[in-house]
Amino acid sequence: MTITAYIARAVHTMNPSQPAGQCVAVRDGRVLGVGPIEEIRRFGDVRIDDRYADKVLVPGFVEGHSHALEGSVWRHLYLGYFDRRDPEGALWNGLKSPEAVQQRLAEHVDQGNIETPLIAWGLDPVYFDDAPIDRQLLDAVGDSRPIVVIHASLHVMFVNSATIDRAGLSDLDLDGIIRGDNGQPTGVVEEFAAMHPIFDALDFDIFEGASNTQALNRYAQAARREGVTTITDLLNPMSDAAIAALREATSAEDFPVRLVPALNALAWDPQAGSERVQQAIEYNHERLHFGLVKLVTDGAIQNFTARLQWPGYLTGPNNGVWNAPPQTFHDMVAHYHQAGLQMHIHTNGDEAVGVILDALDETLAMWPRADHRHTLQHVQLIRQDQLRRVGRLGACLNIFANHIYYWGDIHLSKTLGFDRCQRLEPAASADRLGIVFGIHCDAPVTPISPLFTAWCATARETAGGTTLGATEKISRARALEAITLGAAYTLRMDDRIGSLEQGKLADITVLNEDPLATDTPLKDIGVHDTVLSGRPTGTH
Ligand SMILES: [Zn+2]
Description:
Blueprint: E1 3-12, E2 20-27, E3 30-34, H1 37-40, E4 46-49, E5 56-59, E6 61-63, E7 77-78, E8 84-85, E9 91-92, H2 98-109, E10 118-123, H3 135-139, E11 147-151, E12 156-159, H4 161-167, E13 177-179, E14 185-190, H5 191-202, H6 213-225, E15 228-236, H7 240-251, E16 258-264, H8 270-281, E17 292-296, H9 326-338, E18 342-347, H10 350-366, E19 375-378, H11 384-393, E20 396-399, H12 402-415, H13 418-423, H14 427-432, E21 437-439, H15 450-459, H16 476-490, E22 508-511, E23 527-532, E24 535-536
Parallel strand pairs: 1-4, 1-5, 6-15, 7-10, 10-11, 15-16, 16-17, 17-18, 18-19, 19-20, 20-21
Antiparallel strand pairs: 1-2, 2-3, 5-22, 8-9, 11-12, 12-14, 13-14, 22-23, 23-24
The structure holds zinc ion (ZN).
Zinc ion binds at residues 65, 67, 234, 442.
């Protein structure tokens, strides 16, 4: 068999026994060795590939929490506050005022059929100093074509009068349809139960949008461009259509990433849900990895919907919302644990973390299982005593490092205040306690870019330039580990990906600069290419 050796300026392996070398040698899609080329030659004839001779090779990046929605949501109009690139790489400018939002909508409302809704996404009014986004604002853009604007968090929707009429919202009695003093809908619709009449009336459902091969291919390309070789879809419906699309997309030889879907457990009866995952595991192959279950306990801090312990929110409502009663989460944790599956559990606020740690504690006392690797996701406000419990229970963390940049200023002034902002995303504390952790972007909530995420964990800078909790910064080397081996461990895939070690799949990210030997901020280091199972995925 042919041995290919990718020669490079530097190689960082994440393997402590053999941390660096001058080349990565590949045979049968696996890493044969890292080291001096003359040592590789002892295995047989070596074909030297010097296309990366002036580049730096690191293990392929692993994005442990993002959503395939990133591949479908760009079919709709982007209205976010921050500049952002679509999966094809085109730049969309961020919109800094309600007027700018209206203007972009106005540019598109006259295009297309008046019967089909104009759908937009990414709006985050928390940046607009409380100027209301409501039906009046959208009616001023157009009141005959239905307009639907989805909040950046995906948990809230803003609609115009044409949508309210088409969906009959005035006559529906649902908590999430917000009403004004006159009893009429304001155009603000919160949480999923209230969104469904709109999906039905307008014949679209943004959350099912990723269950097709085209969306999965776009998602994979967006990830590949940022150096990702393994990506999650951490809230997959696992409907027949969703599974079929995942299997079809990943069966293509040139699909450029490994894809790891997690069952959306809240949409399933636990017995049926665990059977669903166990059956789907039969379909696993090198580029598709079923086996995870996702639970979503609370909301998001920037929407004031995360569940917080005392003293609650700095301004606004006192506490957030549960997606199900806490007892339901206790029951689900016990069920999926007993079924032998691995859970990834969304816990944004510290109260949510507490409920899940209690559930894990109880469950593990009754059904001990070494190396379960249940992973708490986001854990933005986890306290020191909770971190120690995580360590003791053998759980893992996936920390939402990007949040510091995108919402840190808001957390300081509106949601949390100074003290809790110091402990936001406490990666250094997790590291000190020996907890294995990844860091993530939660795309499409924030853009996919592991190097940006790693920069957030090292710099802890907000968009406004404030540093939050300097003692929780981690080093570049630890951040690089979190986006490779750390994330791979949380997915229970560290036996095959996450480092460049003999026998592992040859997944490589090719960088323009050495992240451990340059002053360039990690976020500004260019990704040149990726290699999946030893094969370059780009056209270089
Ligand atoms: Zn998510």
